[in-house]
Design brief:
mainly alpha; 5 helices
């Protein structure tokens, strides 16, 4: 039933498709955030919770390769495929 929505997905290179449909990175980040908040228990304010999540995300991005996200499995290959498919959209 959703074939018309699915077929444009097949136009992407296999490396790009893998990055799009893989949820491992998202699940990993969610696990890290749950681990941080569970250890803390409760928060006096919403702002305190947001600060803790901000610091946790900053540490996660440092561990996973920084802003470029190059710590993700297969990301460098996908980034090369993105650069070939969309040459005018990526900064050099």
């Amino acid at each position: 039933r959703a074939w018309e929505e699915f077929t444009p997905f097949l136009a992407f290179a296999p490396e790009i498709r893998k990055v799009i449909y893989t949820t491992n990175l998202i699940e990993s980040i969610n696990f890290q955030l749950r681990k941080v908040t569970k250890a803390r228990g409760s928060f006096p304010t919403d702002e305190a919770a947001m600060k803790l999540l901000y610091l946790a995300i900053r540490n996660i991005s440092d561990q996973r390769g920084g802003e470029a996200g190059t710590g993700s499995h297969g990301w460098k290959t996908a980034l090369n495929a993105f650069a070939l498919q969309f040459p005018d959209r990526l900064p050099l």
